[in-house]
Design goal:
By secondary structure, the protein is an alpha+beta fold. Helices cover about 40% and strands about 25% of the residues. The protein is built from eight helices and ten strands.
């Protein structure tokens, strides 16, 4: 895959609209091309800016659909003008969102982050395949154990940027590739205490940004020690922490206390 072909697919890749094979080819190209990697990071930055604005207040469902439609329209621009058109359109969208959210029409309407219309419901995912969940199992999730695979090995198999995870006093126990009945792919990495301080493992689910939805769970936003913004809450009796980084949603789930989970994910420097 050359740069022209990769850049044409960067927008759809950021929306998780590519087939696994195409997504893997894009991921492989941007891992070796600094220029395309830079443009990919700019697209993710624009997406994150829009999500950050919308996470503060909830616009109407119709308004959100019009924003997504506008972004998709920009991504269909000509090959020569693709990046210019996208960033102008995206910047205009951010401005439009900012103005709309300050209008009386949207005042006091609550919080709801932007997520894919076909997002995976995290509550159902964790209840079905979580190591500390009792089910019932959902046949729409198929788990393929692939051994102790690190982020680079997993990224090559699933076609998105899997984040490297390091948790103090916890080691990687096993990795799984999870596929849904409608063709979506994510990963689960399980970490066990390496010093015997806990018998509770930590499940780490990763998926392309916007693919995991926490629709039924009340989450609150926090700022971690490393400066990242994350959401913290409960999935049943388990602590859950969700953050987005470099094109991936990362969801940590474990019975350990929320405060301990936060310190493990982002230890104080």
């Amino acid at each position: 895959m050359n740069c022209e072909q990769a850049r044409e697919l960067l927008g759809p890749a950021s929306d998780n609209e590519l087939a696994n094979e195409s997504a893997a080819m894009v991921a492989g190209h941007i891992s070796k091309c600094n220029q395309c990697q830079s443009e990919w990071e700019q697209i993710l930055s624009v997406r994150a800016g829009i999500v950050g604005i919308l996470a503060q207040q909830k616009p109407s469902d119709d308004f959100e659909k019009r924003i997504i439609s506008a972004l998709h329209s920009d991504q269909q621009a000509s090959k020569v003008k693709y990046m210019t058109t996208f960033f102008i359109g995206a910047a205009a969208t951010v401005l439009l969102v900012s103005l709309a959210l300050t209008s009386p029409y949207f005042a006091g309407s609550g919080v709801r982050p932007v997520q894919s219309q076909n997002a995976i419901v995290a509550e159902s995912l964790v209840a079905s395949i979580g190591h500390h969940s009792s089910g019932p199992e959902d046949p729409s999730f198929v788990v393929d154990y692939v051994g102790k695979k690190d982020a680079s090995d997993l990224a090559a198999k699933v076609g998105f940027a899997v984040q490297k995870i390091k948790l103090a006093n916890y080691g990687l126990y096993g990795s799984d590739i999870v596929k849904t009945s409608d063709g979506k792919t994510l990963v689960r990495m399980c970490f066990n205490s390496s010093d015997g301080s806990s018998t509770d493992c930590i499940d780490c689910y990763q998926a392309p940004t916007g693919l995991l939805s926490l629709r039924k769970t009340s989450m609150r936003q926090i700022t971690l020690e490393n400066g990242q913004v994350a959401s913290i809450g409960k999935l049943g009796n388990q602590s859950a922490l969700l953050l987005s980084s470099n094109g991936a949603d990362v969801l940590y789930v474990s019975p350990i206390a929320s405060e301990k989970l936060i310190k493990l994910v982002a230890p104080a420097s």
